Amino acid sequence: MNIKRRSPIFILLTLAVLWAGCTSNTSELNIETPRSSPEDKLTIWWNQSHYPQEDEAIQQLVEDWAAKTDTTAELIIVGQDDILKKIELARQSGDVPDVFFSNQADAGHIPRWAWDGLLLDLSDVVKPQQEIFSPAALQAVTLYNQVEQTRSVYAVPIQQQTIHLHYWRDLLSEAGFTAADIPSEWDAFWDFWQQAQAQLRAQGQTDLYALGLPMSVESIDTYLIFEQILEAHDVELMDENGNLRLDVPQLRQNIVAALRWYTEFYHQGFVPPAASDWTAGDNNTAILNRQTLLAINPTLSIPASQREDPEIYYDQLVTIPFPQEPDGEPMTHLVDVKQVVVFTAASNPELAKEFLTYLVQPQHLSNYLEQSFGRYFPVIPEIRAQDFWNDPADPHIFAGAQQHQGKTRSMPQTRNATYTQVQSETVWPKAIERIVVDGVSPEVAADEAIAQIEKIFQAWEAEESGKL
Q1: 3-state secondary structure of 226
Q2: pLDDT digits (tens, 9 = 90+) for 290-323
Q3: Domain 8-161+337-403 is found in CATH 3.40.30.10
């Protein structure tokens, strides 16, 4: 579907028709200005958002840049289920867009693309203004290029997510507790929700479970949440240079402890039995259907889905911080940084850099980020300091912002692109399933996972040695 951008009124009417009547999750919108030869046209692929307001915001941002620079820009919005397939086909044909963004590409694709030398070095976009970004954001986009044998900036960070906790205030009250009763110490915190389940079960709510913890390979949430649990148990598989640390004796013990902690809730009946078969979104569904009391989720999508119901959003659902880590230290939050990239095969790399330099200016990026309604948070402290993110009247965004302002660390694949295969092969979710479905011990599951990770790293090393 091609749409010529002619006036703000026309834009809004077109979007209304697009969202009301379009059954496909792929749409194409062109933004054109009167000037420009074809070789000056900037092509942008951007993933479709959960919310039309977010799509409208990026469309407006692109249009403003195009008008300001007197440039032709083509914005193609592609459904989340299709965009990574579409870019892989484009890479194979050599016909890639100038700018590419998928909020699912950072974990399994971007580090590998950088490793393989497929991404343009964007240091001259990021480094002149690196002081505006958080340290975790800069860490996430500083990736290793095996072809050039160098580590540099191969993406532009724009937003990030982390793991959040949500519970039902009214259900907790029915169990005889208040927010003041919730402990901050690790073991006491998790025991508290088990006690609440027991109280509610005694009142006849026999289908309610304490925790919404995904246990399946099929749910990406299992991977993301368990990475946070590994962090809480001081599991760092790689050093700062991306070298495996599996020979550290304590590391295996900590992996076993993390797997045992995670899966015991399932074995002891504090997690719904169906959690071993959950797919993406089932964790959300379980708490919204009041099947679980506390949900653990990688975005604020659970409360965001209830924004149209003020009673639920403001009074019944509560977002709370993580407890202290098992060793008593404050929680270090793993942040999944969402990134925009430019492929080396792009037709207009310099124009792409100009657009990205414009995009990350706080006055330009701010509105786009707000339209995610807290599903994603700023990587630029200046934006994070704005009222939208710090208004206690919005309890969920305010609580989420507090997490992002605490101690953070980027996901492990930023240290070594090899780890993207650990994710794509679902090493940790498979270990969890081995325990809860196949009945193996945490020790056996840990050893299997460690062996698989070692095999993955050895295969990458052998592949690269063969190229030298």
Answers
A1: helix
A2: 999 999 999 999 999 999 999 999 999 999 999 9
A3: no
